[in-house]
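ugh finaly. both done.
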Amino acid sequence: MRRSLPVAELARDGRFEQASIMDRLTDPRAAVNVRKASAGTRRPALRAGQPGAPDAARSLMHGIFTGEIQALEGAGRTCWDFELGTGERQVPFALKLDMARQCWDEARHVEISVKLGEWMGTEIGEFAESTILYEAACNDDPILRLTGVNRALEGLAIDIFNTMREFGQATGDPVLEFCEDWMLADEVTHVKMGSDWLRRLTAHDPDRRDRALEFQKVVDKLFSYGGIRGDDDDSPVRLARRFRELAGFDTAEIDEIADLSRQAGRERAERVAARGRPPAVRSADVHPIGADLHSERMAR
């Protein structure tokens, strides 16, 4: 079996339609909609009774579903892509066992997400799939893969699952609330595994740890979606501080993610103001380096 499977060769049937991250984020039904942000109309997208909230919740749930598929694929690749050993491109057997356990969790999440989509009235393929999560799982450095996926993107999953759980509570939907709470517990474990392995594998190499954490900052800022994911009251996706603490983040790290989100929001507002009108949204407006995790600047 080949190693490092490229994103273009992911197995999908005819129900799936892939699109760029910006196409996903500018879908008017989306919970995280950067076009609304560019027009200065950002509001919490998942609030009971708010117009558009049902479509926003369905869109976010479908995004969770496709993200869980890619998380399964990414964890599976990590089990296979790296040889056993202590070199920079090698991993301990125990790390592979953790990734295998994560595969089992992600497979269960896919099944739960399919059922939740049906419960919410959504068909597979009703919303497009962005492959950005799997792209982050293609890094050939296992430490960068762990920080980019298990700490940054799985950390984002903690925030999103908690947002959906609270939406289920607010709308009196016990099925949504219970399922999101169940998956949230697994995501905390996945992030904790990434946090633990980052510290263990870089215990005697502080420079490598610093490079990995710097890469994580880039991914965290990118996935603040121009300030839409953050710690402020009007953030559509709120940082789940307590659950992040359980996953191995300290207060300073969470504060830094919140600051990165505010910085991304200010940078976006400045670009909008410089043009003098709400512009057509481009990937560079969400983050100056865009959404290409394969670029050299992102990879290093």
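ok and the 2nd:
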Amino acid sequence: MKSSPRIALLFLVPSFFFVGLFSIFPIFESFRLSLYRLILTLPWLGEKMVGLENYTDLLSDPVARDSIRTTLIFIAVTIPLELLFGLGIALVLDQVFRGRGLLRAVVLIPWAIPTVVSSQMWRFIFNDRYGLINFLLFGADTSSYIAPLADPNLAMISIMAAEIWKTTPFAALIILAGLQGITDDLYEAAGIDGATPWQTFCRITLPLLKPALLLAVLFRTIDALRVFDLVYVMTQGGPADATRAAGAGAGSVSEIAAGDVGGLAAIVGTAIADGIGGAVAAKGGGRRCDRKTERGSKSDHADRDEKAAAPRSPCAVVVRDLNLVQDPRGPLR
């Protein structure tokens, strides 16, 4: 039975409809509303066209600037650590040992727990009276207990620790999928050539993991830009706006209370633009990596074809075999 393009299009139309209705339309509608001054509590004032005034007000707001800076710091610290820990976990899970399947399921538990639940758990852990962190640091000496979530210098570190704990398994899952795509023939060839484990990791594993790493960076950057529930449950943006992130809506509470739809739409538009920019940058890096890999694979195939086509005399074969017997490391000598 031959497939018809019309039948395929017929199956895709409902998907396109819902994507356009629930994803594309809200984005354009949010951008349109951001160009107006519309106050819900004063509907008789109507919609006043203000252009980019809402965006200029947003960028001139010190709270908004601090929230953007906090978000950038949050991304710059959490994502590299998540990739580093995720890479280590993926390398362990890629090995063959008894109970590997059970360990893989256990590792994914933090990521499977709802963010609100894990945030409340970490809020209890960092509690200044009965928290586990204080007990591990000071034991029964309650007079020395500290309040990390109430300290502007420690609150952000506490939120970062909770975020890294929860999302590292997701990065490990993506990296593990990349490791599964690397054939064992490459490692066997490297072992025959006498490559050390570190050389194998740097010259085989890490280069072939670039697409998976870029994909993990893309997903984690998008999630970090719109972080809200973690911050809201643990600190609600405090103390003194020290943990207010852009995803939590800088000034969004005051905008909602005042009914300023245009200002809130400007906040949403800025967050969407940040997410799209990060996605485009990561996708461009992935394409460059894919092109380099493709060129490298083509050149490797060409080299192997030339070597296979080149005539070799029996003397050359004997000399090569004698060299391998004398020094099994071969080319890496």
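summary for the 2nd one i guess: DSSP finds 15 helices and two strands in the chain.
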